[in-house]
């Protein structure tokens, strides 16, 4: 037993590796001057005893700021970009659509006048967008920003978009008009008749058993899976993901040579990514989300008006990416119900819709936290800390005036964002705007005027 590691020691070692992982995924900080970074003096002296590293071209730094919905990542990204002379590249799957402003929490015209923004309002609501398209567009925008001598600041919470953007996209067969139309036609009868299970079984029999794991009526993903099978003879899972390969490589490096981990350089990455995840304790986040949902509905010219417009142009809930977005889907379903009732709705029906909207948004934030908890390249910071301190930390780290380790005063422990089962069972929404029927009377009057079609 003397040669075995005690559980306490093993846990401490794992926590140390977890805490240092973002550093392992970024370029070495040996370029920082001791006069500006006294905290790195010991590390610099230790590194001097190592063999000279192979010289590589210095990579351009790209700042990535993410977080769950309602965490305040857009505000932080805006101020960081303003101070650093940067430009923001949106990593939001809904902000790409023209006309979907309030429900996507799109930056205001005033905010976009302060700092240039990219990948906002680039598509019509009838178009679909994918992680592959985002990789192409965001990488192109990043290089354009760098070529102008500015700092790229990526801001958004769409996890798959950011994963592909940082690590690369899988080398799956490219879509073509012919293959897309062929697969779309193959699934057309199933889609028109609402036969989701039968369509899934067709794709499973074609060679992709993971199609059963797709969310119901996710026709875009199902069609893409079948398209890959028809084009290559293999399912999507047969194609290696750069992210998985990267993680496997790092797991090996940490296992075989933990003492040299601090000098690791992620040469396979095109840029020097400095990634921030803005988080807060789950209950506090949930309260913020609930209020945000109310604020999107209190002005009838906001989310409800945008959802009504989607219905007016012929879209139905979950018909495509835009009409499947959280908030828009629930609002479209509610307004359809109101239209079927001649433009009438009761206060209770509206409050039920609001509760569903809030619950769906909270569940989405929960999924985001779970996703990013496994993305070890991110530094987790506490969004409830003073805003100026958060901005200063990011700017100082970018300039090399501090090591890229979050100070304890700003750090958010990943385990602190885990909602205890007791809290989950006792959590209840506490509306601060729509407290009762009288508070939604103006909304019901608007519905009566505009939805009696």
TrEMBL record:
Question: What does the record list as GO biological process?
Answer: cytokinin biosynthetic process; tRNA modification
Q: Name one GO molecular function term.
A: tRNA dimethylallyltransferase activity
- Give the Pfam families listed for this entry: IPPT
Q: Which domain of life is it from?
A: Eukaryota
Chemical reaction(s) catalysed: adenosine(37) in tRNA + dimethylallyl diphosphate = N(6)-dimethylallyladenosine(37) in tRNA + diphosphate
Which UniProt keywords are listed?
Answer: ATP-binding, Cytokinin biosynthesis, Magnesium, Nucleotide-binding, Transferase, tRNA processing
The cofactor named in the record is:
Mg(2+)
Q: Give the enzyme's EC designation.
A: 2.5.1.75
Q: Does the keyword Calcium apply?
A: no
Which InterPro entries does the UniProt record give? Dimethylallyltransferase, IPT, P-loop_NTPase
Task: Please state which protein family the record places this protein in.
Answer: Belongs to the IPP transferase family.
Q: What is this protein called?
A: tRNA dimethylallyltransferase
Origin species, per record, is: Zea mays (Maize)
> Its encoding gene is what?
LOC100174970
